[in-house]
Every structure is written in C-alpha cells, then in structure tokens.
Write a structure and sequence with these properties.
InterPro entries: NAD(P)-bd_dom_sf, Sc_DH/Rdtase_CS, SDR_fam. The protein is α/β, with parallel strands linked by helices. Helix content is 46%, strand content 15%. The chain has a 7-stranded parallel β-sheet with strand order 3-2-1-4-5-6-7, sandwiched between helices. It is globular, with a radius of gyration of 17 Å. The relative contact order is 0.15.
C-alpha cells in the first residue's frame, strides 16, 4: 500500500511481535531498516528476514548508554534516519517499585532517549522528504481507560500519548511529524496473549468475549497503521494517537 523506497527506518524493539511486523512491513515497502532488541536469537532471525541492507544490533532499552550508542550506529549503517519507530515496553504490571521502574525506564524514557538521539538525523532528512520525517510511538489502549491489571503500564502509556502530542508541537518546526498507535490485545507466537490462551486463562476468554469481531488482533494490523502514519499519505497528520484495537474499547 505504501512506497518507502530509498527511505531509512529505525525500529526500536524490532525483533518480535508488533516491532517485527513493523520492521518487515517497512522493508517490504522498500525501506532500509535497522532494528534493536535484547534477545540475540530473535534479533538474528528478524535481521535475516529483513534481507540485504538491514542492520541489527543488541540494545537494552532500559539503558541510556545503550540507546546513545545504537542510534548513531544505525544512522551510519543506513546513511541517515527518515523514520523512527519507538516500540518497546517494560510491561510493568505490578503496582510496586519494580513494576513502576520498568515502565518508566522502557515505556517512557526509552522513547525520550531514542527520540533525542535520532532528532538530528531526522531533522537533516526532513527537507527532502514529502511530508517530512517522522516518529511513531507505540502506546496502548491501556492509556485510554483504567488499567486495573497493570497500573504502571497504563500510566506509562498515557504519558507516551501526552509526550507524542508535545513532541509534535516542538518538532513540527523541523518538519518532523510525531504520531502514535495504541494497539489493543494483539496475539502472536510467544507473546503474552498466546501464553494466556494456551493456559486457558479466564482473562483471555473475557477479552475475547469483548471483541466485536470475535478475535484478537495480529501484529501486521498494527504495522499497517504505523506505515500509514510514517508515509506521505499522512503528511498532514501529527500529534495524533490512533487506536488499533478492532473496536475493543467499544466493548469494555
């Protein structure tokens, strides 16, 4: 649906699930893609799928120094950065110090740090791109309602939505658009929702029952919206976070 030929994209947390689908979607649309993640095996597997010209390196997104090292390496490998996708989560579910620390460091600060590191490259690329360069932040519908099962996660994602709006306001003068996607419950091999289904979790059945279309989403359905937001088709869209949930919020 979109042509990213000649564009350079960095996907943080791009080795599995939604991040992998976004990276593959960008590559299939013609972009050169760089990804990072902590798990070496999944990183290597996705790097192979991305094909020639892709770049992959390990990066702990809770570590500021790791992010500061990765972004310039990715820019050097790709020859610049036109699109940054911030896709990672510490999945802080427990309302305790550990849960809040994980959500703060990964869900919030990894986005801040990666965006700061990529900004000079995005600003340099923007004038030659129709619609400018772009950042897409991956949030969650947990930001849009009370999240009783995961207080830190929901609060962190709400902060991401607010930061997305503020980034768009600040970076617009540099021709950098900033938008977000808020996925609902997305199922993929090895992911949390698959684990719950296989365990026969009542939480899975409850969520499934709330879905208007009778199923959970898949990563590619989120990736398609990310590609739209990063493409010239969304050149007059900035500061928005789009729910990609198959109507899940309607049933809650």
């Amino acid at each position: 649906m979109f042509d990213f030929s000649g564009r350079r994209a960095v996907v943080m947390g791009g080795s599995r699930g939604i991040g992998r689908a976004i990276a593959l979607g960008l590559a299939q649309a013609g972009a050169r893609v760089a990804i990072c993640a902590r798990g070496q095996a999944s990183l290597d597997a996705t790097r192979a799928e991305l094909g020639e010209g892709a770049f992959a390196a390990p990066c702990d997104l809770a570590d500021a120094a790791d992010i500061a090292r990765f972004i310039p390496k990715a820019a050097a490998a790709l020859g610049g950065i036109d699109t940054l996708v911030n896709n990672a989560s510490g999945f802080g579910s427990e309302d305790d110090e550990e849960g809040w620390a994980a959500s703060f460091q990964v869900d919030i600060m990894a986005i801040v740090r990666a965006s700061h590191a990529a900004e000079p490259f995005l600003a340099e690329a923007a004038p030659r791109l129709q619609g400018g360069s772009s950042i897409v932040n991956v949030s969650s519908i947990s930001a849009l309602r009370a999240a009783a099962r995961s207080l830190p996660y929901g609060a962190a994602k709400a902060a991401v939505d607010h930061y997305t709006m503020s980034q768009a306001r600040v970076l617009g003068r540099k021709q950098i658009r900033v938008n977000g996607v808020a996925p609902g419950s997305i199922e993929f091999p090895g992911g949390r929702w698959e684990e719950r289904r296989l365990e026969g979790s009542p939480v899975y059945q409850s969520v499934l029952a709330s879905m208007p279309q009778g199923r959970l989403g898949v990563p590619e359905e989120v990736a398609d919206v990310v590609l739209f937001l990063a493409s010239p088709a969304a050149r007059w869209v900035t500061g928005q976070t789009l729910a990609v949930d198959g109507g899940q919020l309607l049933g809650l």
